Amino acid sequence: MGVEQDCAVPARADWVVGSYETKCIMWNVNADTGRRYRLYPTEEQAQRLASWGQTCRWLYNTALEQRQFAWQQRKRTLGATAQCVSLTEARKELDWVADLPAQSGQQVLRHLDQAYRNWWDPQHPAGPPTRKRKSARLSVPFPGQAIAVRRVNRRWGVVSLPKIGEVKFRWSRPLGGVVRNAVVSFDGVAWHVGFGVHAGVTAPEAHARPGTVVGVDRGVKVALAMSDGRMWNRTFSSPGQERELARLKSAAGRQETARRNCGAKTSNRAQKIRAEIARTEAKIRNRRRDFLAWAANRLCIQHATVKLEGLHVKAMTATAKGTIAEPGINVAAKAGLNRAILDKGWGIFEAALANRARTTGTRIVKVPAAYTSQRCSRCGHTDRNNRESQARFRCGSCGYQANADVNAAINVRDAAEAPSPLTGRAVRDRSRKASCRPPTQRRRRTALETGISRP
Ligand SMILES: [Zn+2]
User: Fold this and answer.
1) DSSP state of 117
2) What is the DSSP string of 385-425?
3) Is the model's pLDDT at 7 over the cut of 50?
4) Ligand 1 center from residue 410 Cα (angstroms)
5) What average pLDDT does this structure show over 430-442?
6) Nearest to 282 by CA among 336, 245, 333
7) Where is the composition biased (Basic residues) (predicted)?
C-alpha cells in the first residue's frame, strides 16, 4: 500500500500538484529526458497498436506530400494547425483514420512541423523531412494529456492509452519526473513505451573530478581506445547470426525480384522473412546501443573533459560507387570499411556522450583528426611508416613503442581544440547537392544564376 502510494507517478501534470499556480507552471514545462520501458500489450492490443502505427506512417507521408504540393504549386507553407483541419475531415470519411486517436494524429502532424523547423535551423544537422518507409519502426505518439501512468507494484506499471485502456509495462527504472508525452513503438523484437519526462535535471556547475582529461580514439578493430591505455570493444553479432542474416537477406532479395517481375503483393512468406530480418537486426542494434551508452556513461562520470577526433561520420561512410560515367574504385573495399565503421557505431557514440554529459557536466571537445594515427605521441615525429601494423606503433625517430590506437588516443588528448567546429548546415552543405537546399535558399540562388547567365 505504502509502496503504491509513494511510487504512483501520474502522467497528467494536474494530478501531481495541488495548487493552481504550480499547475500552470507544470503545463508549460517540456520533456528534457527520455525513459523507455518494455511494453507487454495483449495480442489484441498489439494488433491495434500495429495498425495505428501504419496509420501514423500514412498520415506523416500524406501530410508531407500536402506540404510539398502547397509549396510547389502555391508557394504556401502549411503548418500543423492547418493540416489538423484536413485530418478532421479525413477522420469523418475514412474509418481506419478515425480509429487512430485524434490526439495521436495531431501529434504526428506536430512532429512533421518539428522536422521542418529542424531543417530550417542552421544549427541543426537534420536534412529535409523524408517519407517514412513501410519497413520503418512502427510508432504511435501520444501527448501527455491523453495518457496516464500508474505503478502497480515493484515490477510492473500500467499506462492508460486512449481507446485501448491499460497496458502493462515492466517498471525497470524510476520515472524521475513528470511525464509530458509518450511514444509506443515496435522495434522488430518487442514493444516499448518511451516517456518524455520533465526531470528538471541541470548540468552541475563543475564536474565532480575537475581537471581530468581523456582522449578517445575510435577504431574499426577496437571500438574505443583511451589515452590511459584502456581499450573497450565488443562484438555485437555472433558469426551464426551473421550467416543467418546473410541467408535471410538473400532470400528476401530473391523474393522481391520475383514479386516485382510479376507485380504481385508481398507474400506472407516474404513478410515473415522481413520480420525475421528486422528481429535479428534489432537485437544487434540493441547490443550496440547498450555498449555505447555504457562506455559514454563511464567516460563522462570519470572525466571532466573527453576529447574526440572530429570525424564527419556521414561523409566518411559515403559510398565510393561513383556514377555510371565515372565509376569509383575499390567500391567493395570501401563498402566493407563503411560497414565496419557503422557497425562500431561511431556516430551513436557521439550522441550518447553528448546526452550523458548533460548531467555530469563533462565537456566534449573535438580536435582535428589529421595524422593522429601516424604521429609519435612522445616526440611528435610524423611518418606513415611509424605504424608497423594495425595494432603496433613504433616511432622511426625515438623508438617509442605502443599500441597504435592508444598512441592515437594520446595524440587526441594532447591536441588543441579545433578552431571553429562546423555545426549544422555548415557540415550538411559540404556533403549535399544543391538540389536539397531549403526552398528559400534554392529560389534565391536560381534567380541569381539566371541573372548572371542571361545578360
Ligand atoms: Zn618518437
Assistant:
1) H
2) GGB-SSSEEE-TTT--EEEHHHHHHHHHHHSPPPSS---HH
3) no
4) 13
5) 42
6) 245
7) 430-445
Q: Determine the distance separating the centroid of ligand 1 and the alpha carbon of 417, expressed in angstroms.
A: 22
- CA dist 14 and 28 (Å) reads 12
pTM of the model: 0.76
SS3 helix, strand, coil % of the chain, rounded to 5? 50, 15, 35
Going by pLDDT thresholds of 50, 70 and 90, the confidence category of residue 323 is low
Distance 385 CA to ligand 1 centre (A): 12
- Ligand 1 centroid from CA 228, angstroms: 18
How far apart are alpha carbons 333 and 381 in whole angstroms? 30
pLDDT at 450: 38
Cα 375 to ligand 1 centre (Å): 8
Mean of per-residue pLDDT scores for the chain: 83
Is residue 14 within 8 Å of residue 23, measured between CB atoms? Answer: yes
For cell 511494453, what's the residue? 39
Delimit the domains of the chain by residue range.
2-198, 213-241+276-421, 423-455
Centre of ligand 1 to C-alpha 379, Å, is 4
Distance 33 CA to ligand 1 centre (A): 46
Task: DSSP for 225-263, please give it.
Answer: EETTS-EE----S-HHHHHHHHHHHHHHHHHHHHHHHHT
Separation CA 5–CA 233 (nearest Å): 43
